[in-house]
Amino acid sequence: MVTSTMIISIRHAAVMTSLIVALVGIAGCGGETKAKTFKVTGKIHSGGNPITGLPPGEKPMVKFEAKSNKEQSQAKVGEDGAFSAELAPGDYTVTGSAGFMANEKKGSGMVSKSLKVEADVAGLDLDIGKAKAKAK
Description:
With about 140 residues, the protein is of the alpha+beta class. The protein contains 3 helices and 8 strands, in the order αββββββαββα.
């Protein structure tokens, strides 16, 4: 014979079990750790001036390629040439260019340099004006 006390105990056990399962699930989600990244900021320009005169839709580009695995990422570049990116620690080749057309020409309007990321990097200077002078 089932009594009302037994029904209440079964319901109580079911609620408690559901609560425990939910808490374990939530606690498990917090165990994932995000890889450490550092902020890299700088400016891409031509002889100290913003890069202008690009075709519609074009804007300066800054690309980072990890030397270890060739993984690439692109920085966000503002109208004034200021850029920023979040990168994992490591060695990178940084390439700045005056847009997609400069990338296609491979030379004029591009500058590349090596970068070691071990902490936040501020003031990275990419002057494509110097690259244009060398290409002539």
